Amino acid sequence: MNVVMAGVGGQGIILASDILAEVAMRHGYDVKKSEIHGMAQRGGSVMSHIRFSEKVFSPVIPEGECDILLSFEELETARYLDFLRPDAWVLINRYRLPPPTVSIGKEMYPEVEGIVREKTRRIVFVDAGDIALSLGNKRVLNSVLLGVLSTLLEPDTDTWEQCIAERLPEKVRDVNIMAFRMGRDIRQENKVRGG
Amino acid sequence: MSENILLGNEAIGYGILAAGASVVTSYPGTPASEILATVMRLVSENDLHVHVEWSINEKTAFEIAFANSIAGRRSAVSMKQVGLNVASDAVISASYMGVKGGLVLVVADDPGPHSSQTEQDTRLFAMFAKLPVLDPSSPQEAMDMVQIAFELSERYKTPVILRPTTRVCHARQVVRLPEIIDNYTPPSFEKDPFRWAATPGPRLRLHRELNEKLKKMASDDLASPSLILKGKGKLAVISSGVAYAYLRDVLGLSTSRDISVYKAGMAYPLNRDSLDRILERYERVLVLEETEPVIELQFSSRQKVSGRLDRVVPGEGELTPDVVRRILGIFTGLEDYNIPEPASQKRPSLCPGCAHRAAFFGIKWGAPKGIYTSDIGCYTLGLNLGAVDTCLCMGASISQACGFYHAYKGENNAPPIVATIGDSTFFHAGVPPTINAVVTGARFVLVVLDNGTTAMTGNQPTPAIGSVANDFEGRQVSIEQVLKGCGVKTVLVEDPYNVPNFIKTVKKARKRTEQEGVVAIVARHPCIRDKDALAGQDVYSIQITDRCNKCNYCIDEFECPALYMGESKVEVDMSICIGCGVCIHACPRRAIVAEPIRR
Pairing with A103, which of A35, B8, B467, B480 sits 20 to 30 Å away (CA)? Predict the structure, then answer.
């Protein structure tokens, strides 16, 4: 299984990808994972590859081999379309951070859905930021997205919740578990959309 | 033995302590920074007798570890590849002298480059310095290789380089955790001035010894690439580092079983006879390695060899799985060769609320149309604001300012010159060029951007904090006193958040350069990533009034990610604005207003 997580600095992508890797390890898989740090910490693009199966050699997913793309920002989705298999799932958080060319008014923010649809019909849009705000903590949006992602992967929610709990400080543990469960619920209500 | 998912750098940190190192040093730099951070954490968790420090620069870090090594104890030092340039004087000399206790030098390379000035290959440096170099392909292997490196170092009495790349440092995998024990070895420095203080005469003898060592190392088992996959055909690939892992994945996706795969764990020195034997067995051999032809250059004959030198492998850029797939396509003659340009990335910016932005804005107003030399750190991003014209390497902001002064000296309309350098970078490499500028009578404004931390690499301490590691109270070194000690007469301290005052200070400093030469400003405001400092700072609610006429001035000249152009006026992205209130100075029509929320 090859999963790409993409977005921008500060959205909790590295933490979310660590939790997925941990869940996969506890299910007995060989896990490898790659991420790019550095300049990305300052609001630039952030990307993480997570791979798990019987045996994984490299931490980087080859083009055309990604099973699930989980995108934390709409436009970031477009950068990783070459990675997708024809039947890949694409989960997109409804959040737009305009790149400089858009914020200075030179270009319009593009509509991403059409571009993704040319690659795969399995698209799910989630407004994770809205759900996070309804829980009173915008930083839990990554747990919401993990909830959505979990419905496509291991059904065993106990391991997911345990891994989330272990990685987070006590005072935000419960709110993240709630966010995770709400993420699972939307996906279940949203079955009709996204193939 | 338990298992855990570790970052490559964490695995290396575990390896260093499991091998019993008693001194571990580093200077922060991506992608190497987490190595020492892990060592520090494990030392305090296990209460080990290990000296750990963020040194002032890589050269000092190496020299401290080297001293411990010649006192008979295992030592490790880590840095990024350009840090090795800084340490190189010491490293090459130490290669001649050799070591006593094992000395492992971990140098993280950054093909791509993802967060570095160059794609330089430390393995090629190792060849130049005549040091053995190990090239791990995964976090687990990096950890195992630390142990091998220490053994090698003690067997041949030489420093050993472990060279992981970004894709190993920042990969995570399931790793078998080694036992961490307190391995106390008493120091035992034995005087041997013909070695440890060798003058040119004895150095010839040391060079001869070094050549003998290299010859012996080349007959070690490690020096022969090992056969991993035996193919049916007449083609072979020799790989090292993460390129090996990509190769295995790419071959795993294809049905062809023709290609044999060799892996070189040690990239230099290699056993030339074993390379010759590989050549005899195959019609053609491809070398996959990052980023220079180090293995390739060690073949005595390259007629059958493909790689960087015959351009089958591109001469720059990272070897990704896709690049490896295309290279294999050409090598086997099955596929066209077409390397796509990487997709453009979002431009990184200084954080919303960063005091560097305020300082750069003030510098542009206080010294307009100047030449702005700058340095390595978050603040290099001042180039987005047009307030950074140069960035060469650590410390060069000050020497380049000095150089520009002498270039323009006596010219009509010579531009004002302002150098910007971060606090950590100032300590690392800024002191000698400051003295040089004072001595040569150069006139410019030197702004030390003092946010109290090494922010770019994850907020490591600086000498001004006084601490070099956790659990360690040191003595603080004051930036102002260092500047004065370098001969700078006037040192002005100002918080750049107060933009009007900061502009006045820049103007004043500029004027004084006419009499005093170098005039320094310490622009002091804590990094907003320091949660405690942020909690103590005033917070404002930012509103854009209807006076906004969409002139774009704030977006172009102030460049805060929280400000963007909306339909009818500029808008504030409240999800990222920290309410610093500095942007009110960035609107010529005063359309940005700030209401205090918390003082």
Answer: A35
Question: What are the CA-CA distances from residue B542 to residues A139, B252, B429, B594 (Å)?
Answer: 21, 56, 39, 5
Domain residue limits at B385: 355-528
**CB atoms A104 and B248 under 8 Å:** no
State which residues of chain B have pLDDT below 50: 336-339
The span from the CA of B581 to the CA of B590, in Å, is 13
Contact list, A61 vs chain B (CB under 8 Å):
321
Residues B36 and B81 in one domain: yes
Q: Do A62 and B564 touch (CB under 8 A)?
A: no
Domains in chain B: how many in total? 4
Please check whether residue B339 lies inside any domain of the structure: no
Residue finishing a domain among B476, B510, B528: B528
Residue B489 DSSP one-character state:
S
C-alpha B319/C-alpha A35 separation (Å) is: 16
CA–CA gap between residue B544 and residue B45 (Å, rounded): 50
Q: Provide the token pair at B23.
A: 């001194």
B84 Cβ partners below 8 Å, 6+ apart?
B58, B91, B105, B107, B122, B125
Q: Write the CATH number for B150.
A: 3.40.50.970
Asked if residue B593 and residue B477 are part of one domain, the reply reads: no
pLDDT of the residue at B335: 59
ipTM score of the complex?
0.82
Q: What is the pLDDT of residue A190?
A: 59
**Looking at the partner chain, which of A8, A38, A58 has a beta carbon nearest the beta carbon of B30?**
A38
8 A C-beta contact, residue B464 and residue B477: yes
Residue whose token pair is 């272990």: A166
Comparing CB atoms, the residue among A62, A79, A102 nearest residue B249 is A62
CB atoms within 10 A of CB A144: 29
B174-208 pLDDT, tens per residue? 999 999 988 889 999 999 999 999 889 899 999 99
Tokens of B190: 């034995």
CA distance A192 to chain B (A): 31
Domain A2-194 architecture: 3-Layer(aba) Sandwich (3.40)
Nearest Cβ partner of B248 from A44, A45, A57? Answer: A57
Instruction: Tell me the count of A-B CB pairs closer than 8 A.
Output: 129
Question: Of the candidates B332, B347, B363, which is a domain's last residue?
Answer: B332
Pair (B304, B399) in one structural domain: no
Q: What's chain A's Rg over C-alpha atoms?
A: 16
Nearest by CB to residue B114, choosing from A36, A58, A65, is: A36
Q: Testing the interface with B: which of A11, A27, A42 to mutate, by most B Cβ within 10 A?
A: A42
Could you tell me if A66 and A84 are in contact, meaning their C-beta atoms sit under 8 angstroms apart?
yes
Separation CA B380–CA B74 (nearest Å): 37
CB–CB of B346 and A38 under 8 A? no
What's the rounded Cα separation, in Å, for the pair B397 and B56? 18
Residues B369 and B515 grouped into a single domain: yes
A57 interaction partners in chain B (CB closer than 8 Å): 244-246, 248-249, 252
